[in-house]
Fold each of these.
Amino acid sequence: MEERCSKKIIDSQSEEAFLRCATVILPYLNPAELASISSTCKTLYQISKLVTSRRTSDASRGIENLPIPFLNPIAGGKSEPYSYFIYSPTQTARVGPEIRQPWGSDGDASLYGKEGRPDPFLFRVEGASGCDCARGCGDGCNCLTADGFLLTRECGPSCSCDSMCGNRVSQGGVMTRLKIAKDERKGWGLFAAELIPSGQFVCEYAGELLSTKEARQRQQTYDKPASNGHVTPALLVVKEHLPSGNTCMRINIDATRIGNIARFINHSCDGGNLDTVITRSSGALLPRICFFASRNIQENEELAFSYGDVRLDPNGQPCFCSSSCCAGILPSEHT
Ligand SMILES: C[S@@+](CC[C@H](N)C(=O)[O-])C[C@H]1O[C@@H](n2cnc3c(N)ncnc32)[C@H](O)[C@@H]1O
C-alpha cells in the first residue's frame, strides 16, 4: 500500500515537471512544429491551444505599449490565425537562421528583462555633439534647428535629454491602437483600431539592416516563389536623393524573418495614408525609417504606403489596392 502511494506521488511529480517543461518549450516552436506536437497527447494539445491564442492576441508579444491582435475573418477563421515571425521593435543586425524567440508564453512581456525596450540606435557616432537642453527640448533645441527638417530630426544618443524628451516621438514604440487583419487577396494588412490624427507617429519599419549586396541576394530568393517556402517578403529599400537626382544614401531593411508590425503594411498606388519619413537622430550613425499619418486615419481603415513607382515586370504580382489610380501590378524595382 505504501509503495503504491509513493509511486503515485512520483507520477504526479513527473507529470508536473512535464507540464512545466512543455509550457516553457512550446512557445519556442514555429506553427508547423506546434501543430505536430499538439497531436501527440491531450496535454500538449491544450498547451498549444493556449500558445496559439496568446500569439493571436498580440503580434508584438508584449513588447509594444499596446497589444496588436490578429483578426482572420476569412472562411470563419479556418486558415492560419496569425502570421509567424520574430519580433524586433527596432533595427537589428543580420540574424542567423537558427534564431528562436518565445511567443505565446506567460512571460512574453518580460522578453527584454529589466532593461525594457532595446536601444533604437544600432550604431552610434562616438564623440558626436547633441543638444544639452536642461529642461525639455523646445524651440531652441539644436536637434530641431540643425537642418530645418523638423520631422526628420530627433534628439538621440549624444543628447543630454532622456527618453521622455518630446523630440523623440518615434523612439518609444507604437502608441496608437492597431490591429492586423487578413484579406483574401492581399494577405495580412495593418489597420487603425482607433482614429489616428494627421501627423501622428504610427510605427518604425524595423527589421534586419542589410548591405546592398545582401539585399540583392535576398530579393532574388524572394522573387523565386518555389524557393522561398511561401514566405511573404518584406524587404524595404529606401533611397535618399540629392536635389540633382543622384542617390546619396540607401538603406535596406528586411522584415521578412525578423521585424515589427510595419511588415504587415500593404502597398497602395495612390500613396496610401502614411508618410515614409527618414528620421535622423543626433549621435546615431544611421537614420531610421518611420511612418507618420499623412491625414486623419479613421478607425478600421487600412494603413498603406506606396512601395514605389517602378513596375519593370509586366507579369509581376497583381495589385489589389483598389485606389482609382491602381496600376494593376505591384512595384517591382530591381534592388
Ligand atoms: C510587406 S508584405 C505586406 C504584408 C503581407 N500582406 C502579409 O500577408 O504578410 C508585402 C506583400 O504583401 C502583398 N501585398 C502588399 N500590397 C499589396 C497590394 N496592394 N495588392 C496585392 N498584394 C499586396 C504582396 O504579396 C507583397 O509581396
Note: The helical segments are 2-25, 31-38, 42-57, 142-145, 212-223.
Amino acid sequence: MNTIIRVEKLNVKFGGVQAVKDLSFELYKGELLGLIGPNGAGKTTALKAISGIIKPVSGSVILDGKNISRFSVNRRIREGLGISHQIVKPFRSLLVKENIAIALGKDKTKSAIKSLFYKRFSEEYEKSLDYLKKVNIEQVADNFPSNLPLGFLKRLEVVRALALNPKVLLLDEPLAGLSQSEASKMANIIKRINNDGVSIILVEHNLSEVIRICDRLVVLDAGAKIADGKPMDVMKDKKVISAYIGDDDVIEA
Ligand SMILES: Nc1ncnc2c1ncn2[C@@H]1O[C@H](COP(=O)(O)OP(=O)(O)OP(=O)(O)O)[C@@H](O)[C@H]1O
C-alpha cells in the first residue's frame, strides 16, 4: 500500500503537559483513518501539529514523500493538506457559494479575498455548486453562513477544505454537536468523499459512526498511540477498553 502521510515520532508539549508522545503512524492512499481516544488524549493536538497550526517539540510529517515539518500552514495547504476545523470558520460576510469559490480560485491571485473580485471568477461560482452538491447543501448557496444551522455549517466547513483539492483531508470532529441522525448523514457524506478517492484522517468522538465508516483506527491515550488496526479488532483491545472506561471497570473474561 502506498503511504500518503507518514507521521514520525511526533512530540508536542504545552508547558509541563506532554499532549502528544512519540506518535508515529501512516495514512495510506485512499484510506479513511479514524484517530480516536478519550477526552484529552491528544487527537486535536496531533491533527494541529500535522497541519502546522501547532509547532511540535520534535518529529516529522512526510506528505507524499516530502518532508513538510518546517512548512507554514499555508505552505502545507499548497502542498496538499485540506484542513477542516472543529469550530467552523466560514467567512461570515460572504455567501456560502463565495466561501467555496475562494477556495477553488486560490491559485488565481495571491489574496483569497481579492480573488473574489477577479473577472474570471464566474467559473468558480458555477463550480462551487458542484461542490455544495457533494455535501447536499446546494440549496443554501446564496445564503450567508450566519443564517444557517450547525449541520449546514459543518458541511460547509468540510467542503471548503475539499474545494482546495487536497491530497489529504484532515477532519477535526465534523460530527460534533449534531443529532445522531444528522451525524449519520454527515458520516455518509465523509465516506462518499473518501470513495471518490480522497485520503482522510478523521478525529471523532462518535464511535459508532467511526467504526461504521473507517478502514482503520489509530487510538491515542494520554498522548501516546495504544492501538492501530481494523475497527472491530481495535475496539476489542483491552488497552483501548481500559482507556475509555477505566481499568477498574474491565472484567477479565
Ligand atoms: N493550548 C493548550 N494549552 C495547554 N494545554 C493544552 C492546549 N491544548 C490542549 N492542551 C492539553 O493537551 C492535552 C491534549 O488535548 P487535546 O485537545 O489534543 O485532546 P483531544 O484528544 O483532542 O481531546 P478532546 O477529545 O476532549 O477534544 C490535554 O491535556 C489538554 O488539556
Note: The chain has ten helices and ten strands.
